[in-house]
Every structure is written in structure tokens, then in C-alpha cells.
Sequence to fold (603 residues):
Amino acid sequence: MDTLNVNGLAKSYGSTAVLQGLTFELRPGECYGLLGPNGAGKTTTLRCALGLTAPDAGTIRLAGLPVPERAREARSRVGIVPQMDNLDPDFTAAENLLVYGRYFGLPDRAVHERIPRLLEFAGLGGRAEAKINTLSGGMKRRLTLARALVNDPDILFLDEPTTGLDPQARHLIWERLKQLLAQGKTVLLTTHFMDEAERLCHRLAIMDRGRFIAEGSPREVIAAHIEPEVVEVYGEPGGAPAGPPQGGAAKDMEQAQPANEQHPLPRERGRGDGSLMSAADWAREEAAQFATRVEVTGETAFCYLTESAPLLRHLAGRQGLRYLHRPANLEDVFLKLTGRDLRD
Amino acid sequence: MNAFRPPSPSLRFIPVWRRNFLVWRKLAIPSVLGNLADPMIYMLGLGYGLGALLPEVGGVSYLAFLAAGTVCFSTMNAATFEALYSAFSRMQVQKTWEAILNAPVALDDLVLAELVWAASKASLSGAAILAVVAALGLVSSPLALWALPVVFLAGLAFAALGLIVTALAPSYDFFMYYFTLIVTPMTLISGVFFPVEQLPAAFQALSSLLPLSHAVKLARPLLLGEAPPAAALHIAVLAGYAVTAFWLALGLARRRLLK
Ligand SMILES: Nc1ncnc2c1ncn2[C@@H]1O[C@H](COP(=O)(O)OP(=O)(O)OP(=O)(O)O)[C@@H](O)[C@H]1O
Ligand SMILES: [Mg+2]
Fold:
């Protein structure tokens, strides 16, 4: 089955090279992820692949057809969830699906038959007559997914399908995508959520400034680009009793223990007697002997290493420093490859 | 690819036309009444008020003279409003076009659908005025029914011109320029409210280039029960405007949206 082949794709806006020679293909039945910071060129890649933006160089085949020359035809085999919802505000949920089906040349009868199943699939059973402006953000996103399925596509393009959704809605979308993959559909997904990519993508590419800087299965990418273990070291919040570490990584926690079971001294005083210091100072002065690589952001030091035991022993004897030890994940790779600076 | 390559639309414009029709159907009655009220007030106000002062204009009562002008004027307005404000909402604000372009519909189909839709809606308001005019006894023969295709053709021409403006517009405010600089002056020199012959020669020459005056020259004789002189010329001018302006509007839209 023909999916998407992109070869040497390049695109500039004015003097900015937005895509700089991308080459990739989707294998039938796989979920392929495009990851990259804001402005990396993910949406532009999708637009080129759909024939909505004319590339400056490169060849594209979508569903076996050359794009942009036969893009109109090729799009009839594709379902698209755009980055921004663009449901028709003048219509109900069901009318949105009906009218969208007509754009594919589907007879009303066929679409009417599909509507209840599509709404059910999107968790919107019973909402057929709901006006779009009465739907929550998550419902709109799910309705957009249902709309993308109205033509029973072989290939799905999903541009950040779960951005802005609550965990419940995100999990529902993930479940649905797995079902669609199980039905044999091929999925091209962009996302900023590394856990989402790790969970769903068979293969993925990390892109930055219009170039691929890593490609492969999530495991391959992690193995190829980063040390296997991470120890995050935090300074104790000024004088507060030790508690679980803050931050998004907490769910991946393998072990987390306060370095000091007693009430630690406030950090400001700690420097004075030499026994306590901030994580940043610790990283600057002592981390290098234990870790292959250390990155400091604010009050957290990320230590990347292959052998963690010596560092953990060292930290166990330190006052005022807490830590979190975990395996390296895609987010670490992403941050290593694309840097920690804001893009926009 | 050159944005101004020839249009190559397909029949996929029909589902897009139907989308706009379905939205309109939900608000049909207020929409038709709104399109009817404004021109009727003008026509009756000017026709009876001013008409009382004038014995005859162009050989008929002023009200009868004004009837054809009003039909064309309101066709122009309806087509222009739809192609400007409504199409701009769909293109820029609601992102309806973006959604449609993700389906197997080309921009060529989409712009054609907007063109035909705006002309269809304009025809409805032209037809509604025609019906009122007929009910007032201002129409002399069934020949007046030929005004309906004229209205549709004029609708295409004005919609296509409007779509050019929409494809260029950064925001709604931009449309004011089009009305102030083009639509209003065109209305005044196209024989809607008074015969073009009243104008200085230079303005008469300018008038003969404008689509509205050609629409009026077709519609007025038809409403008065006569075959329009030089009908082929007027039809050709209106069709020429429609085709050229559509081509240009599509090129500008491609440049704006498919870059
Ligand atoms: N129509 C356009 N005109 C000019 N520049 C554009 C246009 N579209 C995109 N760009 C620029 O191209 C770059 C890539 O944009 P793109 O939307 O593809 O990024 P993205 O990876 O999808 O980002 P995000 O994660 O924020 O959605 C950005 O710098 C953007 O400003
Ligand atoms: Mg994007």
C-alpha cells in the first residue's frame, strides 16, 4: 500500500529556510512521529505533503500520487486533524460530519449511516445535535478526529492532536489512535509530548530548524543519543521539610528519597558551614566526577550517566540536596538535541 | 507554480456551494427580508418622493425608471457583501476554507463555489425585488423574466470583483475602501438613479466601462417590456468581468493561502 514518500523536501519563506532537505517515508500501518520545538517545521512538512504549500525542492508522493500535481486526488485517501480546530461553527456535530463527507464526494446516505458510529468512536454519542460552540475543547478535538475519519482514510495526518486536552481526553485519543493503527491505518503524528510519542510511535524523527536530527524507533533514538540513566538533583526548597520532588518527571520516578530525613537548614545558611549548597553550585563544583554530562536549569541539575551507583552514594550523604533517579527518556534526548532555550 | 495559471476547477465546487446554502437556509427569512428592505426603502422613497417632482424620466414614471436600477443595485450589493464579508469570515476568521482544503477540494473549486454562491444569493435578492416591483404593477410584460439570468450574470461579475478584494484584504476594515472608492461612485454613474445621459461626456465614457451600467442597460428595457439594444455586447462585458475577475481573485487567493 502506498503511503507517503518525501524526498529532499525544502521550503523557504523569504530568507528563512524552514525545511532543509527532509527525506522520510511512512511504512504501511505504522505510526510515525514528527517531534520538534515550536517553529521546527512540522506543520509546514504536513502542508507540503498534502499539496497545500508548494515546496521549493524535493519530491512527494502521497497515496501513490505525485504531490502537488495530483494532491486533490491523493487527499481523498487521507484524514486530517489540523493543529487548530476549524469545525464549522454554523453547524451541529452531525452536520459537520455530513457536510465534510460531501467534500469527499460521498453520498449523503453513506455519511448518514456512518455518523452515529463516528460520534460514538469519538465519545460523542448523543451529541449529534450539539452546536459547536457548546462543545468543550476536548469534545471539539474528538469531533475533529471523527471528521478526519468520515472518508474511512488509509492515512491519517494528526497535527498535535492532544495539545490543550486534559488527561482523560488525551487518553481517549491515544486509545482511538491505537484502534485505528490496529485497523491497519498509517498515521503521521506531530506532538510536543514525548510520552505520547514514546507510547504511540513505531518510529519518529526529531526535527529542528527544518532538519531531521534523529530518526528511528523511540528506543533506538534514546540508545543512540543519550546516556541510559538520569539523576535529577534539586536543591531543598528553602528550609521546608523534605517532600517528594516537584515537576513532570515525578511519574517516572524509580526512587526518590530526601537526602536528609531531618529538617534541613535553609540553603542560605548552608553555604556558610560548607555542608549544604544549591544544586547549581553542587553541579558546578562536584557533579563532573560522577556524570558523563551535566545540565543545569534553574535549581535543577540533570546528570546523565551510564553508571549511577557512585553518584547515588555521594548524594545519600549530602544534606540539602534531593534527587530523582530514572532511566533516560525521549524528553532527555529531545532537550539534548534541541537545547533548553525557548524558541518563540 | 505560477499562482496566476489558468483556473482548473472541478465539480467539487458543488458540495462547497451546498455548505453555504445549508448555512443560509437556517437564516433564510431574515436574510431575504434584510436584503429586500433596504433597496425597497430607497426605491419607494426616491420613487414617490422625488418622482412627484419629475414628470417623466427616460420616457416613463420615475418609479418605473428606478425599478430596474434598484434590481441591479441590490444584486450588486448582495453579491458584494457576500463575496467580501461572508467569504472573508470563512477564509480568515472561521478557517472554514482551511478545513475544506484538507478534503479533496482544490482552492480553484473553493473560490468558484464562493463565486457561484454569492451570485446565487444575489439572484435571490434580485428576484425578490423583481417580485415586489411586479406586484406594484411596474413591470409591463413577461419579458421581465429575462431579468433573472441578467441578475445572475451580474451577480457573478460583482462577486468575482468582490473576491479580488477579499483575497487582498488584511481585515474587514479594508472593505470600506472598496465601497467608498469603487462601489458608491460606480452606483452614481451607472444609470441606477438617473439616466447616464445627464452626465458630462467623460463620465459617460467611464460609465460605459463599468459592469453595473451594462447590467442596468440589460435590465431596464426588459422590465419595460422591450428587448435590450446591443444585448450581446452588455452580456459579453459582464461575462468578461466575471471570468477575468475570477481568474485574478483565484490567483491572489492562491498566492495568499498556498504559499
Ligand atoms: N505562511 C508562512 N509565511 C511565513 N513564514 C511561515 C509561514 N508558515 C510557517 N512559517 C514559518 O515557518 C517556520 C515553521 O513553521 P511550522 O508551523 O511548520 O512549525 P511547527 O513545527 O509546526 O511549529 P509549532 O510546534 O509551533 O506548531 C516558523 O518559523 C514559521 O514562522
Ligand atoms: Mg505546527
Residues 13-257 of chain B form one domain. Chain B touches chain A through 25 residues (CB under 8 Å). The two ends of chain B are 10 Å apart (CA to CA). Chain B has one domain: 13-257.
